[in-house]
Amino acid sequence: MTPTELDAILQDGHPGAFRLLSPLGRRAAMPLGIPQQSEQARGALRKATIGQITDGAGFPLALPSIARHYAGFADTTALLYSSQYGLAPLRAAWRQRLDLPEGAPASVPVVVGGITHGLSLCADLFTGPDVPVVIGTPYWDNYDQIFTMRTGAPLVTYPFFGPDRRFNLAGLAAVLARLDGPAVVLLNFPSNPTGYSPYPDEAAAIVSLLAAHPHPVCIVCDDAYNTLYFDPALYGKSLFGALAAAVDRSRALVCKVDGATKELVFFGGRVGFLTFSADGAAGQALAEKAASILRGTVSSLNTPSQVAVLGALTSPTLAAESAAVVAVLAERYAALRDALAKNGLAALPFNSGCFALLPLPDHQDAETLRQRLLKEFDVGVIAVPSANALRIAFCSIEAADIPDLAARILAGLG
Ligand SMILES: Cc1ncc(COP(=O)(O)O)c(C=O)c1O
């Protein structure tokens, strides 16, 4: 479609999304180019459209030296291009996996090259130097690159935890109250680096606060660590569904960015998904805008990885396999809680995800201590200078080794 045609669809079907689009977001559209013309010729007797080298019957003339590494894929089209939107059955399967509540509009997810890529598409579509991105601090450091470095959007922060050591709703509310134009609100639960996720009362309060915001707002749920919840009392799922059902589409849009990276323990696969709180033609229009930027940057995504994720989603053993991994992480989580307590180390509240954040006393500098731990105690952790804290990735240490890790950190603290 043309940008003008997409504008008309959004003005009618999702005025909030239309108001939020950046200049690039406005321009983004998929013309009737080579991929679309090729798609229209699918099934033609002589299909001479796209620059793929095939056997003439739709299968690749794959080099055996490449193909033997993909021997498990019965469907050899895994070595061909996929659509800019991603493989259709994979998009449908992920949409079903989202398991959204009644009344929550959602587009068919666009496949993206990992969660970072999905976030960067949100940055392209909805931000610029005049659009603040609101985020609790400390936050995942790559947001600086994804938003501020690329599109110039300033990050506007509030302390992630309130004085009661729970999610700082009042802090978020205070930032929102100062806004009078379009903004992005970034929610990351389970959080990196704190490892915190909301309890049901906190989740409900966040949804009400954002739904009542009177100005245009794009809420981005970075759900990278979704499914890794260790406290049964937690809300325990993405806020996307509740937000999508609650917000007013005349001024608010919700984007869900998630993927196989952590949920399916497929870090190198680079399969993520971008879903908008818009259905029907408006949802398709937003998907087209995202896919057109994708075409203008990486052209199309890794098909073998998509085939692998699709195979996993249709596997009868996937749920049990994922539960087994969550159980391993829950054991490491419990081991770290115990070990920190035994060593008198007080982390910030953590209940999910992969990390715990250990604030340091004022006389200890996080970066100096990180280097000392590495050189003198053979321990690698991440310094989080904005919180003068150390981030401990318990997800990558065996439970049996966690007491030793905590003891070394205590020794390093001196
Ligand atoms: C909060 C958060 N979002 C996104 C990502 C990146 O995910 P991906 O590797 O799929 O780009 C990470 C990875 O560390 C993360 O911590």
Give the biggest sheet. 7 strands, mixed
Beta-strand level of the residues, as a percent range? 5-15%
- What CATH calls the topology of the largest domain is Aspartate Aminotransferase, domain 2
Mean pLDDT: 96
How are strands sequenced across the largest beta sheet? Answer: 1-7-6-5-4-2-3
The share of residues in helices is 40-55%
H/E element order: HHHHHHEHEHEHEHEHEHEHHHEHEEH
> Treating each run of at least 4 consecutive H or I residues as one helix, how many helices?
17
Tally of strands: 10
Assign the CATH class of the largest domain. Answer: Alpha Beta
Give the CATH H-level superfamily of the largest domain: Type I PLP-dependent aspartate aminotransferase-like (Major domain)
- Estimated structural class: alpha/beta
Bound molecules: pyridoxal-5'-phosphate
Q: Give the name of the CATH architecture of the largest domain.
A: 3-Layer(aba) Sandwich
Give the number of domains: 2
Low-confidence stretches: none
What form results from the Cα inertia axes?
A: globular
Computed over alpha carbons, the radius of gyration is 23 Å
Separation, N- and C-terminal Cα atoms:
64 Å
List the defining traits of the structure above:
414 residues, alpha/beta, Aspartate Aminotransferase, domain 2, Aspartate Aminotransferase, domain 1, seven-stranded mixed sheet, three-stranded antiparallel sheet, 17 helices, 10 strands, globular, binds pyridoxal-5'-phosphate
